[in-house]
Specification:
The complex is a heterodimer. By secondary structure, chain A is of the alpha/beta class. Helix content of chain A is 48%, strand content 13%. Chain A contains 9 helices and 7 strands; from the N terminus they run E-H-E-H-E-H-E-H-E-H-H-E-H-H-H-E. A 7-stranded parallel β-sheet of chain A has the order 3-2-1-4-5-6-7, sandwiched between helices. In chain A, helix 3 runs parallel beside helix 4. Chain A is globular, with a radius of gyration of 17 Å. Chain B is mainly alpha-helical. Chain B has a single domain, classed as ACP-like (Non-ribosomal Peptide Synthetase Peptidyl Carrier Protein, Chain A, Orthogonal Bundle), CATH 1.10.1200.10. Chain B is built from 4 helices and no strands. Chain B is globular and about 30 Å long. Classes of the chains: A alpha/beta, B mainly alpha. At the A-B interface, helix 4 of A face helix 2 of B.
């Protein structure tokens, strides 16, 4: 099950913890992968680790021209794109009263605008192929909200609504569009927290631990698979039970 | 010119799976041939590929009948 041999996947934000885990997991199932990110050396290292069937396609997702060019670059490298994982995301956390319009817009530009444009960019060939998978990485805060993350949470809720709308448009063409909403996942950010802070975080999670990139990647592999053909417009919450929605 | 007409009709017949006789020049993709809005987008994509042209979105929206497609391609295909 979940064999992705012959499928070509573009993963954005693959230089990050969750993104690299997703790329590795898709690759392990047999997919060819295009690794997008902004940190070229990290992408090169990941591509070297994966060996065959891995390409590096860096782009600045805050630049609209670069966003439009990315699906083309990935298609040139792999001959097409069958699976798109919109994982790239940034934060500009600040209490709303102190949040600058630029902080709001920068997060929207990368997290939501780019995800839409990339989805649009790959849909044409997916429609022709009558097969495609788009998986948008949302977040638990898109459902629960989070103080200091009005911008980030709004983009993540936006990704979920966008997924549902796109899913309805292309469902009868063999294309599914779903979201995965991770909870607290171990990252460079959480590594920087003190042990007390980490324990406090884990205490909010019934499973008793932070998530890993692999926890999230497994959900992405499922939604990207042929077996998940009848699952579309859904949000799969991967959060150790922290929020059951 | 009739070549363009034949090629357009062939694409419409194949894509929408309709009988040849129904695909008259006056036929509307949506009203007469049972296309949905996504079908019309796909038809435009197929025309672009067949004739090696790019049909901008505002022009694509106006292509609603077989004749609209033939006329646009006659005017814009090299």
């Amino acid at each position: 099950m979940f064999d992705l041999t012959g499928k070509r996947a573009l993963v954005t934000g693959a230089s990050g913890g969750i993104g690299s885990a997703i790329a590795k997991a898709l690759h392990a199932q047999g997919a060819e992968v295009a690794l997008h990110g902004t940190r070229r050396e990290k992408l090169d290292a990941l591509a070297a680790e994966l060996g065959a069937r891995a390409h590096v396609t860096p782009a600045d997702l805050s630049d609209l021209d670069a966003v439009e060019a990315l699906p083309k670059a990935a298609a040139e490298a792999m001959g097409g794109v069958d699976i798109l994982v919109n994982n790239a995301g940034i934060t500009r956390d600040q209490l709303a009263l102190r949040m600058k319009p630029e902080d709001w817009q920068a997060v929207f530009r990368v997290n939501l605008d780019a995800a839409f444009l990339l989805s649009r960019g790959v849909l044409r060939t997916m429609m022709k192929a009558r097969w495609g998978r788009i998986v948008n990485i949302a977040s638990i805060v898109g459902t629960t909200g989070n103080a200091g993350q009005a911008n980030y949470a709004a983009t993540k809720a936006g990704l979920v609504a966008m997924s549902k709308s796109l899913a309805q448009e292309v469902a009868n063409r063999g294309i599914t569009v779903n979201a995965v909403a991770p909870g607290f996942v171990k990252s460079d950010m959480t590594d920087a927290l003190s042990d007390e802070q980490k324990a406090a975080l884990a205490g909010q999670i019934p499973a008793g631990r932070l998530g890993t990139g692999d926890d999230v990647a497994a959900a992405v592999v499922y939604l990207a698979s042929t077996e998940a053909a009848w699952v579309t417009g859904q949000t799969l919450h991967v959060n150790g039970g922290m929020a059951m929605v | 010119m009739s070549d363009i007409s034949d090629r357009v009709k062939k694409i419409v017949i194949e894509h929408l799976g309709v009988e040849d006789a129904k695909v008259t020049e006056e036929a509307s993709f949506i009203d007469d041939l049972g296309a949905d809005s996504l079908d019309t987008v796909e038809l435009v994509m197929a025309f672009e590929e067949e004739f090696g042209i790019e049909i901008p979105d505002d022009a694509a929206e106006k292509i609603q009948t077989v004749k609209d497609a033939i006329s646009y391609i006659q005017e814009n295909a090299s």
